[in-house]
Amino acid sequence: MNKKLYVISGSSGVGKGTVIKGFLNRNKQFILSVSCTTRKPREGEVEGVNYFFLSNEEFQNCIENDKFLEWAEFAGNRYGTKKKYINQCLADGKDLILEIDTKGALQVKKQMPEAVLIFIAPPSLEALEARLRGRHTEDETTIQKRLKEVRQELERAENFDFKVINDDLEKAILELEKIIIGDEKNA
Ligand code: ADP
Ligand code: 5GP
Questions:
Q1: Nearest Cα to Cα of residue 162 among 121, 104, 112, 114
Q2: Could you tell me the residue range of the domain that residue 23 belongs to?
């Protein structure tokens, strides 16, 4: 039961949301944790589904009251995972996926060494930038902030358990299934 926390990270625009969605469509028993953020919702994002959207004050309150398992600042906004939700899911024996940044992933690993850390990498930096721009969800300043994070993310990824290159989408989903389902079978 303890080996059921999978943490997935990857640079903004690499396609981790797309890969995870493909995985979840085929593996319905997995639950994707909903994070808190101070970022403003993108068009179409829904409170409690994509994120819990908090004000800076609300987020600060959660930090001060020790509500987060981990939290980190990313490209000018703060993001965090609530302890209560994660502990409840794990206690219920649920299979849980966290999609969080590399700083947060390493914090989780420190506290829960059984967590499996998976890094989604781009086929190239050019492809990463093209995908981030092609998504048309961020303005130029935000895109630049996100691209600035990439080098450090790749360095932190050296400490992850697995790396999946998201070149061909279907292959990336299959690879993720091999890691997670293979691991589940062996648990
Ligand atoms: P992230 O969640 O990592 O920020 P997204 O899942 O939003 O990234 O994907 C960013 C963009 O890249 C989207 O427009 C998505 O359709 C596209 N994308 C995802 N995976 C691939 C892939 N393997 N090949 C080409 N484009 C992809
Ligand atoms: P986005 O703004 O594109 O939704 O997310 C930006 C970054 O924040 C991504 O790398 C995403 O994985 C990360 N992120 C989302 N939720 C959390 C969280 O709860 N904690 C941390 N540390 N990072 C998160």
A1: 121
A2: 5-186
Question: Is the C-beta atom of 38 inside 6 A of ligand 2?
Answer: no
What mean pLDDT do residues 123-141 have?
Answer: 97
Q: What is the CATH number for 169?
A: 3.40.50.300
Q: Which atom of ligand 2 is nearest to the CA of 35?
A: 19
- CA–CA dist 94, 33 (Å, integer): 11
**Averaged over 113-124, what is the pLDDT?**
97
Q: Which of 11, 39, 131, 137 for mutating ligand 1's site (highest number of atoms within 8 Å of CB)? A: 131
Spatial distance between the Cα atoms of 157 and 106, rounded to a whole number of angstroms: 9
Q: How many domains does the chain have?
A: 1
**What is the pTM assigned to this prediction?**
0.96
With the most atoms of ligand 2 within 8 angstroms of its CB, the residue from 101, 106, 143, 148 to mutate is 101
**What digits encode the pLDDT tens for the residues 22-60?**
999 999 999 999 999 999 999 999 999 999 999 999 999
Q: What are phi and psi of 178, to 5 degrees?
A: -60, -40
